[in-house]
Every structure is written in C-alpha cells, then in structure tokens.
Design goal:
two-stranded antiparallel ribbon; elongated; mainly alpha
C-alpha cells in the first residue's frame, strides 16, 4: 500500500470513528430525553439508566449507524480532499482517482465484514437482553434451547416465549 493510499484510508477511518461516536452520542441524548420515564423507575438509579441506554442503543440503532457513518465518512473523505486540492495534486502526480478510491473501497468492504461480526456478537445478544429487560424478565426459556417450528409456508426458530402474550 502506497503512502497516498494509507493517507486516504487513515482519513476515512478517522472520519468514520468520529461520525459514529457523534451520532451515537446524539442518539443517546435523544433517547434520554424521550424515554426518561422508562430509564429511571421508582427504585432505579444511575446504573439502571446506563444499563437501559447501553442495551437500547446497540439493539435499536447500531446496525443502522455503522453503514450511515461509513457512507458519510467516504463522502467527507473525498469531499475534503477535493476542497483541499489533494485530488488535483494526485492527478498531477500521475496517480489515478481509481487507485485512491480503491483503497478506501477495500477498507469500507472490510468494515462491512466487521459489521457482520459486530451484528452477530453484539447486536443480537443486546436485542435479546433488552427484550428480557422490557418484559420484566418474564421469558420462558426451553430446557433444550431453541427449536424449529413449521406451520404452512413459514418456519419459526423459537428460543423463548412470553407467557403474557401467549
């Protein structure tokens, strides 16, 4: 990887991290304002409010925030480079835009693969934990774990049941 490609990849990753953190923090503020009564109950404290936020943000928003942050980071990466005439300088130096864009696209593709693993290891378990927290812990879990149920054209994977909703 050449120096210019590393420069653009580093800029892309810095922008991605900054945008992801900023959007996550702004959503946390909105969640605190809108769902304050759900976060803090009569016997709940700061730890319960933070647990609510750290379960709700990944389970509801993180799966959408990562691609949005990657798209915005790509736009800003090349937009800032064009504004600062770095694109013109690289073209004058004989480097094609395809070579620069390819390094960022490969990085974004690797970020997409990493997003899949984040989804499977973080988002799915926090979604389950948030559902258990919201239902008051009244899930019935099965002794042998999950099971498959077939009805008509649909196949269901059942891992827990809610007694109130039957």
């Amino acid at each position: 990887m050449r120096i210019l490609s590393r420069y653009f990849v580093a800029r892309f990753l810095r922008l991605f991290a900054a945008i992801l953190v900023a959007t996550t923090l702004s959503i946390m503020v909105v969640e605190m304002l809108l769902n304050l009564d759900d976060m803090v109950g009569p016997n709940a404290g700061l730890a319960d409010a933070l647990a609510y936020l750290f379960l709700r943000i990944p389970s509801y928003y993180l799966g959408d925030l990562i691609p949005i942050a990657a798209f915005a980071a790509g736009l800003f990466c090349f937009g800032l480079s064009a504004q600062e005439l770095e694109v013109t300088a690289s073209k004058a130096g004989g480097v094609s835009m395809l070579r620069i864009a390819l390094s960022v696209l490969v990085t974004a593709s690797l970020l997409g693969v990493a997003t899949y693993f984040v989804n499977e290891t973080l988002i799915v378990p926090t979604t389950r934990a948030f559902a258990v927290r919201e239902s008051g812990g009244e899930f019935i879990t099965f002794e042998r774990g999950r099971f498959w149920y077939h009805r008509g054209q649909t196949i269901y994977n059942i891992g827990a049941a809610r007694p109130r909703q039957k």
